[in-house]
Design a protein that fits this description.
The protein has 2 domains: about 190 residues, NAD(P)-binding Rossmann-like Domain (Rossmann fold), CATH 3.40.50.720; about 180 residues, Rossmann fold, CATH 3.40.50.720. The chain contains 14 helices and 14 strands. The strands form 2 sheets. The protein has a 7-stranded mixed sheet. By secondary structure, it is an alpha/beta fold. Bound molecules: nicotinamide-adenine-dinucleotide. The site of nicotinamide-adenine-dinucleotide (NAD) has 31 residues, from α6 and α9. It catalyses: formate + NAD(+) = CO2 + NADH. Belongs to the D-isomer specific 2-hydroxyacid dehydrogenase family. FDH subfamily.
């Protein structure tokens, strides 16, 4: 009951574009009102944590809180965390599902092969932001629609980035480890713990999350820089106090802290490599909650080991879940976590509501809010092209 109430109020807070318009692209995405659909959701499993919070809707057990709603309309709703390999539960349903709901936190990798085998697939919805786990070119070529809940967890991620910046700047983690290991060695922390004030912080990408981070950093009296393929409007620049850096390499050379905030695209994949790191200041700190594959994995390991990068923190890895032997688990000077920043309870309620809204539009043959489309009628959203 409490969950339903929370979800209902979250649903109200999400803008719905109710413009009537139907697409007639290859797989008849918005022209199929009335019929019963097979919908598969792939989420992380919560096990013993599932019953601890009625608003915990982002897990398999919570199923985005939409099971009763879907089944009452005659749709079939299958939910699993078993996503990888030819014998996975997802694979068993690939041949006849109509809608696949995935999430970046426990990504079901939707390859060209899976798309080819999913003959009835029409719609791929991302519960969250970032659809790079889907082969977007293959989805476009197959006439599928890919949409995400744009804006749903941007505050959650920006807040988390601010926390990670402070954790790195203050050299917090060695102090925490001392506390739980019965040690007391102030020098071991203090020799490189700094204030944030006066430091230069640059965000690579200043879209929704990047802007929210800059707004949150403003009261710390830092020098704020941003690089993006598009310059902000002057009002936002003066509100955040951030200076535009057209040349990424030049910006990287000025930063004490670099924060990654671009999507993972063909252009951004592996963009922070050995050469880019060599342009950064020795002792730079890096925060990356955007995507693990923006980084050259080994270049980060090497730079953290040599001390060129004095601290690296983020919640995104490639692949996910990160295998036990992923080198970022073992490199020095890191403050990594599993992929958590965008799946706070508040974020879950917002992306669950957004998925429900889009399914509702889909059943009625209506369009989604335009900013939610990643692939529509054979075209990728502009930043993915
Ligand atoms: N860790 C998490 O839980 C989590 C949650 C949400 C989003 N994310 C990640 O963060 C990314 C950003 O989210 P957002 O909501 O701010 O997206 P957004 O679309 O609002 O902003 C992305 C910005 O990156 C810029 N950009 C794109 N390609 C670029 C390039 N080649 N060079 C320079 N700038 C480029 C765009 O112009 C845009 O301003 C998502 O795509 C996703 O990968 C992570």
């Amino acid at each position: 009951m409490a969950m339903r109430r929370a979800l209902t109020s979250a649903v109200k807070s999400v803008t719905v574009n109710s413009a009537l318009s139907s697409s007639s692209f290859t797989r008849n995405v918005h022209g199929s009102s009335g019929s019963s659909k097979k919908i598969v959701g792939v989420f992380y499993k919560a096990n013993e944590y599932a019953s601890m919070n009625p608003n915990f809707v982002g897990c398999v057990e919570g199923s985005l809180g939409i099971r009763d709603w879907l089944e009452s309309q005659g749709h079939e709703y299958i939910v699993t965390d078993d996503k990888d390999g030819p014998n996975s539960e997802l694979e068993n349903h690939i041949s006849d599902l109509n809608v696949l709901i995935t999430t970046p936190f426990h990504p079901a990798y939707v390859t060209a092969e899976r798309i080819k085998n999913a003959k009835n697939l029409e719609l791929l919805l991302t519960a969250g932001i970032g659809s790079d786990h889907i082969d977007l070119e293959a989805a476009a070529a197959a006439g599928l629609t890919v949409a995400e809940v744009t804006g749903s967890n941007v505050v959650s991620v920006a807040e988390d980035e601010l926390m990670r910046i402070l954790i790195l700047v203050r050299n917090f983690l060695p102090g925490y480890h001392q506390a739980i290991q019965g040690e007391w060695n102030v020098a071991g922390i203090a020799y490189r713990a700094c204030d944030l004030e006066g430091k230069t912080i640059g965000t690579v990408g200043a879209g929704r999350i990047g802007k929210l981070l800059l707004q949150r950093l403003k009261p710390f009296n830092c020098n704020l820089l941003y690089h993006d393929r598009i310059r902000m409007d002057p009002e936002m620049e003066s509100q955040t106090g951030a200076k535009y850096e057209e040349d990424l390499v030049k910006m990287l050379g000025k930063c004490d802290v670099v924060v990654m905030n671009t999507p993972l695209t063909e252009k951004t994949k592996g963009m922070i490599n050995k050469e880019m790191i060599s342009k950064m200041k020795k002792g730079v700190l890096i925060v990356n909650n955007a995507r693990g594959a923006l980084m050259d994995t080994q270049a980060i390991v090497d730079a953290c080991s040599s001390g060129h990068v004095a601290g690296y923190s983020g919640d995104v890895w490639y692949p996910q879940p990160a295998p036990k032997d992923h080198p970022w688990r073992y490199m020095p000077n890191h403050a990594m976590t599993p992929h958590i920043s965008g799946t706070t309870i508040d974020a879950q309620l917002r992306y669950a509501a957004g998925v429900k809204d889009m399914l509702d539009n889909y059943f009625k043959g209506e369009d989604f809010p335009p900013q939610n489309y990643i692939v529509k009628e054979g075209e990728l959203a502009s930043q993915y092209r």
